[in-house]
């Protein structure tokens, strides 16, 4: 990046957001990052302790659903680009209560788009998800032209925000680019998601709750590779275009869980098959050839290395895990897993 740019990252205190802020500060000298985050149950400023004193980084507490918060921020400094990641992101929670997903993901995105458009933002990257495409059978992959068929309230709310972002580009010529990525894993992921949950339960010799028959398939990408892809889209993506991002790395859930047990030297008998997630998507697989052919991006991490580094990170950061798992999460965990 040649000129110093002010980049607003929404949801920068979450899993991908905090990895993205760190990645951008490392990759680009001439950059200023403003992290706007409401600090919900998952947002955690501790995730960015190591960059907090960097003069190129600023944190602003604010809610994308609150137009005043956004107007105050956009009026206080020129924002060149927005990378929009703030969202309610957990499928299971959207099944328990969908309302907040519509408020944050749909309404919050529309308010952010409107304020960013009014303030003449030159690039808006909307971070969407492969879940907007729905579920695949045993073969095939989603390309960018696949029809949208979201199945969970989370996926439907992300599809709503994804389409709103594209509509702002089409209607107002607002420079929106959309990314749709597969499952991420890596450091700082909240332990309600599959990989960190299984690592933490295995470390405590607790049961590992595998939904249904464990044969659902996800395509896993190391979080830093997703960050690099978003950076490429931010700089070179064409407004109005959608870019699929994926790891070309499909795993059945049960195989990932057994791999984690093996790496931690724990017995398979810790696996517990529990009641399935309602409406559980069977398989996701992403065709990311457009990212490769047009922007020259491909994953840099092998799964072998990525999963070992991730397990090591959780082993070395158990106090972080116990802190984020205290409080509200305890109630959530009991409700989710003791009722299954
Ligand atoms: P996360 O749940 O870890 O973090 C979300 C962040 O958004 C948190 O810091 C939270 O405090 C913040 N936030 C929530 N509501 C807010 C609001 N109203 N105003 C401001 N901030 C708010 O999520 P993640 O896993 O890091 O995902 C980030 C984005 O990437 C999401 O948009 C998600 O849909 C998308 N995505 C995630 C994955 C994945 O595998 N995790 C894959 C593809 C796309
Ligand atoms: O595909 C991208 C999406 O990946 C993102 O948009 C979402 O924000 C992110 O949460 C993720 O959604 P998934 O539902 O695929 O991720 P999760 O980690 O919740 O579950 C992965 C798989 O593991 C899924 O098939 C459900 C299963 N699972 C999950 C949990 C939490 C279990 O079997 N047991 C569990 O306890």
Using brief descriptors, characterize the structure shown.
Rossmann fold; globular; binds nicotinamide-adenine-dinucleotide; binds 2'deoxy-thymidine-5'-diphospho-alpha-D-glucose; 3-stranded mixed β-sheet; about 350 residues; alpha/beta; about 40% helix; 7-stranded parallel β-sheet; 12 helices; about 15% strand
Could you describe the 3D structure shown?
The protein has a domain at 5-185 and 219-245: Rossmann fold, CATH 3.40.50.720. With 340 residues, the protein is of the alpha/beta class. The longest helix is centred in the first third of the chain and has 20 residues, at 99-118. The chain has twelve helices and twelve strands. The N and C termini lie far apart (50 Å). It is globular, with a radius of gyration of 19 Å. 44% of the residues are buried. A seven-stranded parallel β-sheet has the order 3-2-1-4-5-6-10, sandwiched between helices. The chain has a three-stranded mixed β-sheet with strand order 7-9-11. Helix content is 42%, strand content 17%. Helix 5 links the parallel strand 5 (123-129) and strand 6. 2'deoxy-thymidine-5'-diphospho-alpha-D-glucose binds next to helix 6 and strand 8.
Quick rundown:
Helices cover 42% and strands 17% of the residues. The protein has 340 residues and is an alpha/beta fold.
Chain-wise SSE layout:
Blueprint: E1 5-10, H1 15-27, E2 31-37, E3 57-61, H2 67-76, E4 81-84, H3 91-96, H4 99-118, E5 123-129, H5 153-172, E6 176-181, E7 183-185, H6 194-203, E8 208-211, E9 217-222, H7 223-236, E10 242-245, E11 250-252, H8 253-263, E12 271-274, H9 289-295, H10 303-316, H11 318-324, H12 328-337
Bound molecules: nicotinamide-adenine-dinucleotide and 2'deoxy-thymidine-5'-diphospho-alpha-D-glucose (DAU).
